[in-house]
Amino acid sequence: MNGEDAFVDAVRTLAPEGASLVLGPGDDAALIEREAGPLAATADMLVEGVDFLPDEEPERLGRRAIAVNLSDLAAMGAEPEFFLLSIGFPRRRGGEYPLAIARGAAARGGEFGARLAGGDLSEAPQTVLAVALWGRPAGPALRRSGAAPGDLVYLSGHPGQAAAGLRLARRLAAFAAQGSTPTARFPELSRDDEERLLAAFRDPVPRLALGTALSRERLASAAIDVSDGVGRDAGRLARASGVKVVLERHALPVSMALGAFAAAEDLDPITLLLAGGDDYELLFTASPSQAARLEARSGAFGALVTRVGRVEAGLGAVLADGRSEMDVARLGHDHLEPGS
Amino acid sequence: MNGEDAFVDAVRTLAPEGASLVLGPGDDAALIEREAGPLAATADMLVEGVDFLPDEEPERLGRRAIAVNLSDLAAMGAEPEFFLLSIGFPRRRGGEYPLAIARGAAARGGEFGARLAGGDLSEAPQTVLAVALWGRPAGPALRRSGAAPGDLVYLSGHPGQAAAGLRLARRLAAFAAQGSTPTARFPELSRDDEERLLAAFRDPVPRLALGTALSRERLASAAIDVSDGVGRDAGRLARASGVKVVLERHALPVSMALGAFAAAEDLDPITLLLAGGDDYELLFTASPSQAARLEARSGAFGALVTRVGRVEAGLGAVLADGRSEMDVARLGHDHLEPGS
Prior knowledge:
The structure is a homodimer.
Chain A: H1 3-12, E1 21-23, E2 30-34, E3 37-47, H2 58-76, E4 78-89, H3 96-111, E5 115-123, E6 128-137, E7 152-156, H4 161-178, H5 182-185, H6 191-202, H7 208-216, E8 222-226, H8 230-241, E9 244-248, H9 256-265, H10 269-275, E10 281-286, H11 288-296, E11 305-312, E12 316-320, E13 325-327
Parallel strand pairs in A: 4-5, 9-12
Antiparallel strand pairs in A: 1-2, 3-6, 4-6, 7-10, 7-11, 8-10, 9-11, 12-13
Helix pairs in contact in A: 2-3, 2-7, 4-6, 6-9
């Protein structure tokens, strides 16, 4: 038996057949029995050195790859069903490496109802993961295009922590390479804060409980997941809805950990929050009547939800501090800006 | 508007909404309205320099990426419905590059009923394509595991031509780099043969008409698509079914073009056929009664179908020449053979 076939045999134990999975990994395609109705489908690709740090642990990579896709379904208000996982990797990493990735993805996906159904392996100069995930909207799907003037704007969790975590991870790796101990270099950060920031980048929590509740209970008019920074993704939601999103500086949820890290690095925490990326929190809008119901339910979503602004007539996304407005829709990193 | 958003806008014109595609590219996930029933789902990853030649034309890459996945559905007897396309690429290739890939994939997919529904873009050191495709079996799904002793073995098309085409493409590229003209170096090959071999590698034809007919009309007991060489994939079918597949040397369909190329290169064409890979033909088995119906219908599949062997009790895949049997299940290239 060769390497790929051995891999498929091992992966099969991660994807037991039964219930709606009629035929899992090991044939030309997976077979899934499915009731009628809408399918919400998403795909993401993660490239080593671009979307994650070189030499990241494989199980954590697998967890992150599926979490990023789960976040897209959360932003549609969809319950996950199945996913396909394709892995490209350098042969020198050995046969256990892709299996550890698959194990991490299957475990993390399983926590949210997403089952591994199949995928592909290829050799590659560096690790590349591609996930395709689908599920079923819990109620009317949460589109980006439903926001209207007068709506309120909400944000889950503490965006900016992932960007801080990435910077911290890079710094710690550099310290380790020099042989110095990290804690000595970050007296401003408690060990708990450090762990919180690192986890925000490495092991994001998809906001499925929140997203599916928003859809099921019709509590939101539009939603997007924050993958490229709150500013840029607010701009996308605004553009899809044909409205202006106004974020209020004083209302943005800066965590203690983000504040401490930003102070230590002499950065504005609001910049990390708006331009950071990789947060996988939800940014969403609600009409005043939805907002009233939402705020009454806010303990039930498994995530902090903060009112951060309002929707106005116009176009774009701005940060308002009571005196002036700053365009934030172009903040942050766009991997694919031509020529940049 | 930034690069990724501009890409999404351009891709939208390739994926018009309507019919069952409720919401295409540009939101967090695609939304597809679907009737109840089985879903056949498959994914493949193609890496530059591993699965295709460096600097291949982007439209042709897109065509090939979707064709490889369509072939998996053909081998299940499934009609394609939708696909997601993720593209990693070096920024220096410019913003038109991924769009050309998407255009090629959408055009080729459209020929077989597969519609682009969404995907992802990432920066990467070299081009990586990941496709996830799903569809619906036309009848009972064609599994790898249904072959039984007494069945006959069939093969579509002319496997081995893709492997010859890959060698030819590499040779022509080397000639071009030296400034010599290719025709002068391959007097044994007609220009038509050359084109046929190159196309077999670069632009494979998924055998959907054949696969869906086998499923709909229950003409096959098991099927697999030939991606890693007839020998290795015959071994996989044999293993899944718990049988021995015997391929008869004299019956294997060696095309004129493959014969001419093999003669020019001093190779055995049967070795290219068994060990070559990248053919995307179908290898399938049929009971004697299925075989009789199949052979009566063989003009209707849009592809040559050749009887190439038989299924026996036992295990493995062998090439028989009337005197001896050679194990062929380990022939060919396995990208992931540990330590190889």
